[in-house]
Amino acid sequence: MDNSDGARSALIVGAGIAGLTTACALARRGWLVEVIETGAEGAAAGWGLSLTGPSLRALDGLGLADQCLATGYGMSVITNVDANGVANPIELPRLIGQDRPAMAGIARPELHRILRTEALRLGARIHYGLSVSHLDHGDGQARAELTDATVRTVDLLVGADGIRSVVRDLIGRPTPIRYHGQMVWRALVPRPDWATSIHTFVGTGHQTGVVPISPSQAYVFLTENEVRPDVLPDADLAPRMGDLLAPFSGRVAEIRPQVARSDSVIRRPVQTAFVDTSWSDGTSIVIGDAAHAPSPQMASGAALAIEDGLVLAQELDRCQDTRKALEAFMDRRRERCAVLVKTSVAIAGLEQEQRHRDSYPLIEACHQRMALPA
Ligand SMILES: Cc1cc2nc3c(=O)[nH]c(=O)nc-3n(C[C@H](O)[C@H](O)[C@H](O)COP(=O)(O)OP(=O)(O)OC[C@H]3O[C@@H](n4cnc5c(N)ncnc54)[C@H](O)[C@@H]3O)c2cc1C
């Protein structure tokens, strides 16, 4: 990277939500930014994502909330339908102003496209099919050997490489990944007319729900309890998810045939990870799921990832000493992220004990905590 004009340089490992957000936030502040991504361009899985209020607020800090709202589906109510079919709508707090929705559903590839386009527009360079094989540091810089045998020496290396982070291991923070006994399902379906906001449905054994992600599309989610984390053949996914929805009546029964023939169904284990020690070695740092991966129950892992990118850039702006800035970043982020991971684990346990009502106060308290500034 040519930093002859004195600009600071960053190498970001992982072009996911945390990595691309960090690329935007740093490039906007004049950093020379290079991103390396092991996958292919545009390979983000095609399922939907809920952008909660804190996600939208952080995206607004990057000037991208309105694009996400225009591409996705804005909403301000969650309707919880209990086992007797009684609907309980809850108005969500609007963190980016009363004139804009409280949250949005969006297709994951669309969010990636918006972030990638902005990062490139701001001058970041993104390389696909590339990773890091070795890392060391000295003289206040990180030195990374990449898998194409090239070397980068930068002021900051950011490991935004997800729950199975290689950077985490390379900086000496091996961290267990815990499985919590649940598998989560997502299926893309045409948006039913009544799905103008998130709907959740409690059934006998499993939970399901519908999230609109555009005027024409929605995703159906389902959490399967007490199951081994085995891998099913792709061809079995849609019919199997259809079977799991069979005990539900009403609106779920109405959308079940579309799920059973959806050609976009994914099934993922509910896993978490949290780096208990420092997330940094002084010049490299792990962020996003690489540092703190919650289970999907609170639909807030992306919120933490986006906030991380923004807060990291703010702290590096405030302090030229990278080590001190990274410490300030961790001070701001650690407790908030720990609360979210712990709450998501607790909810996964309560769901499997069929104690849904006991989880509601935890969810409420965690949302209130997340509504506080990042
Ligand atoms: C089924 C499911 C549903 C979810 N739903 C929601 C939701 O509705 N709302 C929400 O807020 N959160 C949700 N989450 C959580 C959210 O997806 C994550 O918290 C978020 O994606 C974390 O972003 P990240 O950038 O840290 O990691 P990732 O999104 O995992 O991105 C990591 C990137 O790094 C790349 N990479 C990995 N290893 C390397 C390497 N060695 N070198 C280079 N690149 C590498 C990967 O290919 C990937 O592109 C959900 C999670 C799951 C599993």
TrEMBL record:
Pfam families: FAD_binding_3 (PF01494). Keywords: Monooxygenase, Oxidoreductase. GO terms for molecular function: FAD binding; monooxygenase activity. It comes from Saccharopolyspora shandongensis. The keyword Oxidoreductase applies. It comes from the Bacteria. InterPro entries: FAD-bd, FAD-dep_Monooxygenase_BioMet, FAD/NAD-bd_sf. This is 2-polyprenyl-6-methoxyphenol hydroxylase. PANTHER family: MONOOXYGENASE (PTHR13789), PUTATIVE (AFU_ORTHOLOGUE AFUA_6G14510)-RELATED (PTHR13789:SF309). Residues 10-336 form the FAD-binding domain.
